[in-house]
Amino acid sequence: MNICVVGLQWGDEGKGKVVDILAENSDIVVRYSGGSNAGHTVVIDDSKFALHLLPSGAVRPDVTCVITNAVVVDPEVLLNELETIAKKGITLNGRLFISENAHVVLDYHKMEDQLREESLGINKIGTTIRGIGPCYADKAGRSHAIRMGDLRNLRQLKEKLQTIVSYKNKVFTAVYNAAPVSADDIFDKCKSYADKFLPFVIDTTEFLHKSIANGKSILFEGAQGSLLDLDHGTFPYVTSSNSSSLGMSAGCGVPAKYVDKFIGVAKAYTTRVGAGPFPTEQDNDIGQYIRERGHEYGTTTGRPRRCGWFDAVAAIYSIKIGAIDEIALMHLDTLASLKEVKICTRYSILDTRYSTSIEHQKSSIKHRETTWFPSNIEILSNVEPVYETLPGWDEDITDVKDFRKLPKNARNYISRIEKLTGIPVTIIGVGPKRSQTIFRKKSIS
Ligand code: GDP
Ligand code: IMO
Ligand code: MG
Known about the structure:
Elements lengths: L2 E5 L7 H8 L5 E4 L8 E5 L2 E5 L12 E4 L4 E2 L1 H13 L8 E4 L3 E2 L2 H14 L11 H10 L12 H21 L8 H15 L3 E2 L1 H10 L4 E4 L24 H7 L8 E7 L2 E3 L12 H9 L12 E3 L1 E2 H11 L3 E5 L9 E10 L8 H5 L5 E3 L6 H4 L2 E9 L16 H14 L3 E5 L7 E3 L6
Parallel strand pairs: 1-10, 1-11, 2-5, 2-10, 5-7, 6-8, 7-9, 11-15, 14-16, 15-19
Antiparallel strand pairs: 3-4, 12-13, 16-17, 16-18, 19-20
Helix pairs in contact: 3-4, 5-6
Bound molecules: guanosine-5'-diphosphate (GDP), 6-O-phosphoryl inosine monophosphate (IMO) and magnesium ion (MG).
């Protein structure tokens, strides 16, 4: 069985926890997109792991971990991560592979990310400053790109770095009035990366296809969330890769037809870090309550996450573009003790200029409701969410193991999400630990 796990919202849905659980029955876990902007948390008993580049299967000693072509690899972060988990007794010797085609994030990418964000002032994207956008830009531009495979030929790499760094320094000094970086220093770091990583650098596409032919079971781990997808998300407030499940095939060279099931991970509410429209945001006591109860602070940057109600319009969009089969609904426990809980079921559009519908644009009736998520931010910023209100539940559910033991109102909340989205909720998170998870085989209630 091959499974792909993908975020249905703006990231941080709890993918790390879901991947860690499913990895128990997987031979291989694959990271196929994004870079160290991701922060995937795995909690095992009292140990907490925050993984940025390693697939979340890494904490299971028998799982092979693969980082494929479309991931942008920051070797410094990866080294730190390997050292951190080694201190907890976990090594990846012989079970980590990195694509020779994966692009390398270097110091000048992180610097460019930071300088550009600073220069944008209030219009900044709110990136993680991990050099993601600049590295993907160099990939698309080709001539300034460095890939993991380039570490094999250090003489050629040295020459390439001289050319690239001399160009970058012109931009840093002239455009941003910043200090230049040293090509020699970056080359020295690359030399040490070559020593450490070359034994793991392979053609991961060949490896995955051979593994499929040998009947191995593969778990594909999405990073970020579908609404942060470069082409299908809320551009420009997105990341620089295809973070919906559409990015899986291109990201690792395995067509979606080899995937038996796409699991979409969503929180029982919605969060977002960084700028950009967020129709169901609760910039009030409710949002604050959710943030504190759910510990909604970024895994990578520590920034407070913006919090709001569950947005079924947004989730349905991610489900449609991602051909999602089932939902893993996390953080149900966080909503406990609220008198009532809300689900956004449609958007109200008050002006024909802000409609994606041609009929509406031509119509004289300005007000219209839609259940289609407009990824265009000008439109999305001008919608009013329409809510359904459901009664909340008081009980602490963090020890519940069986769906039938959940309070009736919590069950009703899940049933409503299933009805609206048209797909079953098969995994329910009631706490951060592996054990705080309810599994359901049942189809839509
Ligand atoms: P990811 O990026 O999608 O892997 O998610 P993050 O790890 O960035 O953020 C999810 C946070 O929620 C982490 O701190 C998890 O430990 C935590 N978490 C995951 N599932 C649950 C859940 O069901 N309940 C609670 N209370 N916490 C959860
Ligand atoms: P995981 O995998 C939440 C957001 C950033 C910013 C935008 C662009 O943990 O769910 P970038 O650094 O990628 O150029 O930033 O995307 N972002 C995330 N938000 N979870 C993530 O990853 C994210 N990765 C990027 O906050 O708004
Ligand atoms: Mg995260």
